[in-house]
Structures are given as C-alpha cells and as structure tokens.
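Request: How about a record?
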Amino acid sequence: MQSESKEPLLNKNSKAIIVLLISISIVSLFLLRNLFFQSNYLLKSFGELSVDPEIAFKNNKPTFLEFYAEWCEVCKEMAPKVSALKDEYEKDINFVFLNVDNPKWDKYIRKFAVNGIPQLNLFNRQGKLISTFIGKQEEKTIKESIDQLEKEEVSGEEILNTEFSVIKENKNHEVAPRSHG
C-alpha cells in the first residue's frame, strides 16, 4: 500500500516541476524579447529614419549610406551598432538607409556596385566616396572613419569582411541581374 501512495506524490512533484520550468521559460522569453526582436525592429525602422539620398548628397553634410535587407543576418547583427552611431552623429551627418529589395533604389545599387550586404559607404561634404565597408564591421572601425570624415581627411579605403550576405535576386520585380560574387 505504501508504494501506491508514493506514486501519486511523484506525479504531483513531476507536474509541479514541469509547470515551474515552463513558467520560467515563458518569463525568460518575455524579459529577453527585446534582445531577440530589437535587430528586426531596427532594420524595419531604418527606411523610415533615412534621409532621402538626393537630399543627402546636396545638403553639404557628410553622408553615411547603408545598403541592407531585412532578411540579412549580418545586417540584423549590425543594426544595434549602426543605430548607436546614428544616435551619436545624426546632427552632423546624413544617415541614408537603402533596402536592396526595394526596386526604387536599384540605381544606387548599381552605381555603388553593391553585391554584398551590409555595405556602408561614407561620403565627405562634397559627396565624394571616402570609405566603403562590406560585411560585418566593428563599431570602433566605422566610428574612426566617421571621425576622419569630420576632419575632411580622405582615405579612399575599402574594408571587406568575409561575413556578409550575398544579395538575393529580387523575384518580385524584374531587374537587371547583379553580380553575386
């Protein structure tokens, strides 16, 4: 008879442990949701926060131009860094964000030979291309180049990291094929 009374007790303990683990998991996901979804939200908001490129190249301010896509994992990873740079420098520098999946920006994609994303281009006040970064970059590296922009120093550097996303062919809109490297 004792074994019969222990079995329901074990079931109650097991159920309590399972409920506790599920509760902890749900609470953890709720508390950490910003870490999981912040990058996606930032990427989606980039287009809305962007200065129009036609205005940016004519208003006598340096320009930070980023080509990105919402599906790009490296873009998602870099979004918080880019957002922090925008917050720090947006008074002095134009920030332009162009989604490579939008056919509206195809002219700029071809003009700046974008075939890997994220691609960051930095321009001086006169609209001359100073630096190009392709792929995952450290915030410090980009910040140093931005600081050089403000000093009007010309480096003409291109920094390529092997961690980047190849641009996918846009099946929704007929566009000229691009090099995929």
Remarks:
- The chain has two domains: 2-31, 38-166.
- The first helix runs from residue 2 to 31.
- Confidence is low (pLDDT under 50) at residues 170-181.
